[in-house]
């Protein structure tokens, strides 16, 4: 019973941790940096990375600017789909549950910004990549984990079919 309960809370716990970390980091940026201002906590890394306060009315990494309403609708659909899909996962799919928690927490973090501010606060600036935030990172990592497991399962299924055909 306890293990089953633990398996059910993976998604909400991961999502909540991501949401809290995302919102705290954005609060610190909003409180300490003016729009466009950068901060370099490690001076030697300044040429490669800094904390830069920017806003984003588009999708992740600044794509499709000024379509905030569309992204609110998309985020709500994604949140609903994740919750629906999560309820149908077998207990053994621990990493997929973690990946969905990462995606849900990130989607909720950016959705909260859009609803509260009308834009998303971005601040992680690697100089060679569009500025992004923890929510964006969480979504990308969650999608990468999910893709890995879906591709792995597909490949295992194809290998199993080949073995059955060869015997």
Strand and helix map with partners:
Elements: H1 2-8, H2 10-32, E1 38-39, E2 50-56, H3 68-87, H4 94-117, E3 120-125, H5 134-166
Antiparallel strand pairs: 1-2, 2-3
Task: List the keywords.
globular, 167 residues, disordered C terminus
Q: What is the residue-averaged pLDDT?
A: 85
Summarize the helix and strand pattern as letters: HHEEHHEH
Structural class: mainly alpha
* Spatial sequence of strands, sheet with the most strands: 1-2-3
What is the rounded distance between the termini?
A: 41 Å
Structural commentary:
With 167 residues, this protein is mainly alpha-helical. It has one domain (10-35, 51-162). Helices cover 64% and strands 9% of the residues. It has 5 helices and 3 strands; from the N terminus they run ααββααβα. The protein has a 3-stranded antiparallel β-sheet with strand order 1-2-3. Helix 2 runs parallel beside helix 4, helix 3 packs antiparallel against helix 4 (94-117) and helix 4 packs antiparallel against helix 5 (134-166). The chain is globular. The chain starts with a helix and ends with a helix. 28% of the residues are buried. Mean pLDDT is 85; it is low at 159-167.
A few lines on this structure:
This protein is mainly α. It has one domain.
